[in-house]
Amino acid sequence: MARAPLLQLSDISLTFGGDPVFADLSLVVQPGDRLALVGRNGSGKSTLMKVMAGLVEADQGTRVVTPGVTVGYMEQDPLMEGFATLGDYAASGLDPSEAYKVEIAGEGLKFDPARPVSTASGGERRRAALAKLMAEAPELMLLDEPTNHLDIEAIAWLEAELSTTRAAFVLISHDRAFLRALTRATFWIDRGMVRRQETGFDGFEAWRDKVWDEEDMQRHKMDRKIKAEGRWAVEGISARRKRNQGRLRALAALREERSSQIRRQGTAAMSLEAGAKSGKLVAEADRISKSYGDKVILRDFSVKIQRGDRVAFVGPNGVGKTTLLKMLMGQEAPDSGTIRLGTNLMPAIFDQARAQLDPEMSLWDSLTGDPEMRVSGKADQVLVRGQPRHVVGYLKDFLFDERQARAPVRSLSGGEKARLLLAKLMARESNLLVLDEPTNDLDIETLDLLQELLDDYDGTVLLVSHDRDFLDRVAATTIAMEGDGRATVYAGGWTDYQAQRGEGGGAPGWNSVSYDGKRKAPEAPAAAPAATPAKSAAKSKLSFTEKHRLEALPGVIEGLEAEIAKLEDYLAAPDLFTKEPVKFRKATEALVQRQDALAAAEEEWLTLEAKAEG
User: Fold this and answer.
1) pTM for the complete prediction?
2) What is the DSSP string of 411-431?
3) Bridge partners, residue 10, by sequence
4) 277-346+432-529 CATH choice from 3.40.50.300, 3.40.50.40, 3.80.30.20, 1.10.287.110
């Protein structure tokens, strides 16, 4: 017998002041669905998710949630008024006996429940909202960019939790690796319409390209038919005016259908050109150390970066990646050791905090008011790599329309703000790109274009990112900052780093990778750090995700045991079955589910522990 859907939207239409966001949109979410929700920036993904959550009411259409089904939504900007700490917010609505779930999620997502709301950053607030959703464990989870502001370890924890949940979820994310690992079906929103494909994100791009090819073919056939019918109308109508009015009406209808078709949004016309070459040496750090009070950022670290290198900096949030970048740029001094900068450096910096954008300024003023882009005496032009361009024309290269040019920056989505910052960065002549979390909020197509531009860029790239797929595509060298002052240089991107770290547990002995990707051996092999007996060898047998899963499982098991004990106490009430038969049935089903989950978790722990011990 087929189960009822969790959520159904039927004939949804929604307009925000201008063109419709959706028209006659319908979709269904079934129990157990693991759905990717994909589409271009500005296509309405977040708005659709808010409609699904019941937070935005459609102009027309119906939203139906099956009785008894709970729907949880991870808010991008959660309202926390009235809560003293992040933990108070995350635990609100939970039974006090289930507060431990917030602590488990807090450990995995790396947020401090005791942090006062008044001093919490936007990223900490979002992690608290995600912890709240994970602790509530609704039957349907709606997750809008959950990996933003998470480091790779926290992403791996979340990935492991979602991979084992019984709940259905709909997921918006720019992180290809995250989407590939978790999704089994795809909602694609394109020009106000939603299509569903019963394959995960891994098959999305081939499916999208096939749909677009078929669409282009149909449009081409329609254009040919309109042209042929139009020629007939001009040449033969006078002799057969009465007889062929129907054919003329059909031609008019065909033209109307063609004109009503919504044109696909093109790819951004971004371009990135290097200026004059820098010297062969870009930066060299020799035995540098850095601390802030008792916190050690770096200890006795050396690296040489040469022209054309693609260097990624990875590690947990707060470990000091941005501090190391600033030292290598000469913006901050080390406590000890020396840093030597190369000659003729022309840096362009993408700041993850987006401090270069004033939220109250319009897009127009944000570009024309930039001293490096201002054209003297021309209020409507900007300087783009030394050449004047009309400000609206340049904004159109980055997929902004004329109406948005006068809108305030604060009205933009996260992806649009990232594109505006890229517009400012790419207008400059540079030979050194410093990209601190450039991938946050960018759609898949823009990420692809950015990667291609970086591949062709005749300069040096320093990159901080938690996007594993993007790191693999771009980086030729990875500097892993692992805490307590330890930083190690590895050859290759994220996957290469994981393989080398698993095999050797220490530095593989590569100092630099040249622009053409050929690895250069150091003059003297770096000594690998001493491995702790047995433990290092044991952990090397597990993958990155398996290590973190093994560490998380004792907490999962403890939580399940606590839930089972609570349910057993609840079911022990002698009159529960007669007075509350529905509650008794649901509690019994929940007990069986948790007992099954506990058995599976214990089996998984035994398997991983045996693998770790070899």
Assistant:
1) 0.70
2) GS-HHHHHHHHHHHHHTS-BS
3) 62
4) 3.40.50.300
